[in-house]
Every structure is written in C-alpha cells, then in structure tokens.
Design brief:
The chain is α/β, with parallel strands linked by helices. The chain is built from 11 helices and 13 strands. The strands form 3 sheets. A 9-stranded mixed beta sheet has the order 5-4-1-6-11-8-12-10-9. It has a two-stranded antiparallel ribbon with strand order 2-3. The chain has a two-stranded antiparallel sheet with strand order 7-13. It starts with 6 loop residues before the first strand and ends with a helix.
Length: 294
C-alpha cells in the first residue's frame, strides 16, 4: 500500500432539499459562502493540507459543479478582452487548484455507496473524504494533522468534536479506549444514541482519512434505513481491522447544509475577509441599532 495521502473524495450527489427552492435548479454545493461556492472552500482546504488530486462524486443534476472547476474559454477570452486581469487570474486559479476528476453516483444509495464509487480511482492508497456541507476554514490544519496520523500509524483517522449535554444524541458518537491529548483510539461508533447510552461526548464530524480497507468493508455493508449504505457501519468494521484513531478538534467549523449555520458562515467569514470585513461590521452594527437589538 502506498502510504501517502494525495487524493480527496468529495461526495456531492445529494439533492439539498433543506435549501429548496434555492436548490431546485442548482447544486447545494454551489450555494455561495461570501464570494465562492461552499464546495470551493472545502477543496481549497484539501489543497492547503497537501492534496493535489480531487475526485468529486456527483449526480446527473450536478453539472454546474463540474463546470465550476473546468476551463471556460469564452469567459476567459471576454475577461482578457476587457482587461479584467484580476478576475481572469481568479477563474484560472480555480481550475489549477488540483487535478480534478468526476464520477457519478448512479442511484441515491447513501454516503457509504458514494464513497465506494471512488474505489477504482483511489486504488490501494489511503485517501481523505471531506463532506462539502461542512466548512473548516483553518487553512487545512485539521486535515493535515489527520493525514499525518494515518501516514504514521497505518490506521484511519476521523475528526471528532466535544458536545455537552443531550444534543449528543443528534450525532454519530465515538467511544474510545485511550486518549493522548487530542488523539483517541476509537473502540466504538454509535449512530444517534440516547443521551444516557452515549459512549462519550465526541461527535463524528465531516472529515475522514481512510485506509483503502474501507472499500472492502463497504462491499459487505448491508443497506440500512431507507435502503442506504451507511458509511458509519463500514467505519465500525475498521475499528478492529486495521484500527481507527480520532482527532478531537477545538473548532467545529460550519455546517453549511443547515440554513442558520450557512448564514452564520456568511456573516463570520465576511467579517474575516480583508476586503469587506470592516464594511460588513459597520453594516451589522447599523442593522442592530436600527432594529433596537443592542
């Protein structure tokens, strides 16, 4: 097995029903966060972590995702003719972020099935999986650390976040046998357990680095609820063969698949933007004053 992680798989075949009607005619992954589609934030994170090969798993309704990362000769010619060289450089930069590949998930059979479609491309190498709804704008630091864990141990590594109180029942939860700082040895995965039965307060988040053994586990995973192949079920089989680590992160990022968190991402990341941050802060202060909110 080649131990270096250079490929990221981005499952982007979902319908995005939580954002209807906005997603009726466009992919949810193309909804803008500040100045770029959410999926671009995720891919830039992967590239910052050292990934240079991107496989995006799409569906027939996601052509816009493929077009976004492809060259557009007509647009580039128009920008050059009008002397809009900054904009020209930016659209070319998107295409040059990494080597892009696309495959389609033929039927909506779940996240596990979506990841399984990557086997032919990935082969016998470890690889990262990034859920495009979840933004982690940390310059790739979390993913880089996870990659280091997998490359050094030969085990898969998933990201975890501490959740206090009964809300832990809304998530997949990892139990662990050992903890060394922010790194745990996972011995159990439970999907949405009752609060009293949760094995820990560590929820599974949307960053994974898998060894290629995950494909064999997915191949024998029985469909679960809704006839879907659950990624968590296959992950549970990795715990004993060859093992799984968890990285406990301090910042959960943003769940851009939820309306409120998508709005929060737009506000907070706009405030961090050097170009518009000060203006956004002034605008928000004005809104608060005008509405008597503070």
């Amino acid at each position: 097995m080649n131990t270096k992680v250079r490929t990221a798989v981005i499952p982007a075949a979902g319908l995005g029903t939580r954002f209807l009607p906005a997603t009726k005619a466009q992919a949810k992954e193309m909804l803008t966060v500040v100045d770029r589609p959410s999926i671009q934030w995720v891919i830039e994170e992967a590239v910052a972590a050292g990934i240079d090969d991107i496989l995006i798993v799409t569906s027939p309704s996601k052509k816009g995702v493929e077009d976004h990362f492809d060259r557009n000769a007509e647009l580039e010619h128009l920008l050059e003719a009008k002397g809009k060289y900054d904009e020209l450089a930016e659209v070319r930069r998107i295409t040059d972020l990494a080597t892009f590949h696309f495959t389609r998930q033929g039927a909506p059979l779940g996240l596990g099935h979506s990841v399984g479609t990557a086997e032919r491309h990935v082969g016998d190498r470890p690889f990262a999986v990034l859920l495009p709804d979840e933004l982690m704008p940390d310059g790739g630091a979390t993913l880089r650390r996870m990659i280091d864990v997998t490359e050094s141990t030969g085990e898969s590594c998933i990201s975890l976040f501490e959740v206090d109180g009964p809300d832990i029942s809304n998530y997949g939860v990892a139990g662990f046998s050992e903890r060394d700082g922010d790194l745990v040895t996972i011995d159990r995965l439970v999907e949405k357990p009752p609060y009293e039965e949760a094995p820990s307060n560590l929820k599974v988040t949307g960053r994974y680095v898998f060894t290629p053994e995950i494909f064999a586990k997915l191949a024998i995973t029985e469909p679960g609820r809704g006839g879907e192949i659950q990624l968590t079920d296959a992950m549970a089989m990795l715990i004993g063969d060859p093992g799984m680590r968890g990285l406990v992160i301090k910042e959960a990022g943003y769940d851009a698949g939820q309306k409120l968190d998508w709005l929060r991402a737009n506000i907070e990341l706009s405030l961090d933007d050097p170009e518009v941050g000060a203006d956004v802060a002034e605008m928000l202060s004005g809104i608060v004053r005008a509405r008597g909110l503070g």
